[in-house]
Amino acid sequence: KKGSYDHFMQKEIHEQPHSLTTTMRGRLKDGGVLLGGLKEHLKTIRRCRRVVFIGCGTSYNAALAARTFVEELTGIPVTMEVASDLLDRQGPIYREDTAVFVSQSGETADTLLALDYALENGALCVGITNTVGSTLSRKTHCGVHINAGCEIGVASTKAYTSQIVAMAMMALAIGSDQISTQARRNAIISGLTSLPSCVSEVLKLDAEMKDLASSLIDSESLLVFGRGYNYATALEGALKVKEVALMHSEGMLAGEMKHGPLALVDEILPIIVIATRDACFSKQQSVIQQLLSRKGRLIVMCSKGDASAVCSNGSCRVIEVPGVADCLQPVINIIPLQLLAYHLTVLRGFDVDQPRNLAKSVTTQ
Ligand code: UD1
Ligand code: F6R
């Protein structure tokens, strides 16, 4: 089943041009978006007081990546909840809320308990899942199957990118009655259409990521700084590195750097800074300058052709990625980090598809 690949995680990373195509198949129609699972509920969702995203691990990170464009395209406030934390706090959920549950397996205990809780509180419950017939799919009022195909590697890769694309289509569908954002929606739809070919292009960084992994093999820790659309990329990249390569890694909000993390910077600790083109670009340029002036060991991810704009003196290692519509850039940017986590794991001699202490589906609380 792995075909020419050594591991399922590797196969699933490289499958993404295809899995994203199947996520979108039949759903981008006549310049608009058609989600069969949501169309009867769009009016109710448009009237809701807020959207609450709920998930765990990678699925939570995918929702975080979607948050900004859901707010932008729908005008509805969005809050984020890690499922276990919502339950610990018994946080407020109201009848006027749309609770969106994101889960690859559709069987994660924490997420399902949070679903029961939101149902009891009368919210409209929407599922975003890869598994037809899963408990999540059956218990939610409506939802979207991401159709990424079966994911076997314990580390979630192709489901993450398909979840983001499914939520982009959801945001486009909810916001489709707004005239003021029509041009923006058209640009995102054309970005979605070109996404699979951009993903094929970014996958060509495989050898470069293997080389980068070999330079990090003995590091004790790895930081990843992102902001805006790519804060989620930083969290998700770090999660991949810690869960499969068994290396300490933290994703951090770059805007918080000077409020503590800056103290960690030295010539040894590798730091990945995500600085692709979007509204936060100039802020990331100044973060890079501040890190370089403290002799930080930087690896900068930037848009193609921006190497000298992000690091003029050549003192950082640069990863250049193809550009897409800013809100879809997280789909591209996570891929080099997935490849890095994969190669780091193989080079460090750990089990890629079955990381220590982890299970694919966490069905206990
Ligand atoms: C559906 C069919 C698809 C067919 C297409 C043709 C299924 C599973 N999907 O896809 O095979 O090609 O019509 O028009 O038969 N749902 C939830 N919670 C979730 C996910 C989904 O309640 O977490 C519900 C949806 O609201 C919907 C149904 O499950 O009623 C199917 O969802 P989805 O597969 O996303 O719908 P379509 O894309 O229309
Ligand atoms: C990370 C990973 C986990 C899952 C989490 C939620 O690679 O796989 O963090 O994302 O356990 O699982 P689902 O999405 O099945 O609810």
TrEMBL record:
Catalytic activity: D-fructose 6-phosphate + L-glutamine = D-glucosamine 6-phosphate + L-glutamate
Molecular function GO labels: carbohydrate derivative binding; glutamine-fructose-6-phosphate transaminase (isomerizing) activity
The protein's annotated pathway: Nucleotide-sugar biosynthesis; UDP-N-acetyl-alpha-D-glucosamine biosynthesis; alpha-D-glucosamine 6-phosphate from D-fructose 6-phosphate: step 1/1
Domain SIS stretches: 41-181, 212-355
Keywords: Aminotransferase, Glutamine amidotransferase, Repeat, Transferase
GO biological process assignments: fructose 6-phosphate metabolic process; protein N-linked glycosylation; UDP-N-acetylglucosamine metabolic process
Enzyme class: transferase
UniProt EC number: 2.6.1.16
Protein's recorded name: glutamine--fructose-6-phosphate transaminase (isomerizing)
Originating organism: Panicum virgatum (Blackwell switchgrass)
Coverage span on the entire protein: 313 to 677 of 677
